[in-house]
Amino acid sequence: PTLEYDDQNIFAKILRGEIPCRKVFEDEWALAFDDINPQAPVHVLVIPKGAYVSWDDFSAKASDAEVAGFVRAVGHVARELGLVEPGYRLLANIGIDAHQEVPHLHVHIFGGKPLGPMLM
Ligand code: 5GP
Questions:
Q1: Which of 11, 16, 46, 51 sits CB 3.0–4.6 Å from 32 for a disulfide?
Q2: What is the ipTM of this complex?
Q3: Domain boundaries along the sequence of the chain
Q4: CATH top-level class of 10-111
């Protein structure tokens, strides 16, 4: 598995505005948008603005400011969407065994219904 960042990945194109998205939130550190194939009534992806392949890459290489900015953006989006009181789920797939499809770090936010236990 390569750790080389591919700037032609689909989320890099979304960040550059080359491909449209349904934007939920954007700041200096992060962009949040609706997943194109939602698995729950609320299914939002939050990505850092920096070029990081995965959570592993990000946690190893990103600056403290980038990490803080991204973590705060995820929390902010969940609050703005009214998910805190009913509850929500965060998920990040990393690498092959987890079926990570897009090689730019993304955290999934799921909510809007009782999600049930996580099976895997
Ligand atoms: P992964 O399996 O990598 O954790 O999740 C990738 C997610 O990106 C999937 O839920 C998929 O539906 C979503 N996705 C893939 N391509 C696009 C796209 O072009 N636009 C948006 N909004 N979501 C996408």
A1: 46
A2: 0.99
A3: 10-111
A4: alpha beta
Sign of the torsion formed by the C-alpha atoms of 68, 78, 103 and 1: positive
The pLDDT assigned to 2 comes to 55
Q: What is the side-by-side strand order in the sheet with 30-34?
A: 23-26, 30-34, 42-48, 107-111, 89-91
| pTM of the model as a whole | 0.97
Q: From ligand 1's centre to the CA of 38, what distance in Å?
A: 9
Closest CA to 20 of 41, 40, 34: 34
Ligand 1 contacts CB of residue 2 (under 6 A)? no
108 catalytic? Reply is: no
Cα-based distances in Å from 30 to 6, 12, 45, 96, 115 = 18, 12, 10, 24, 25
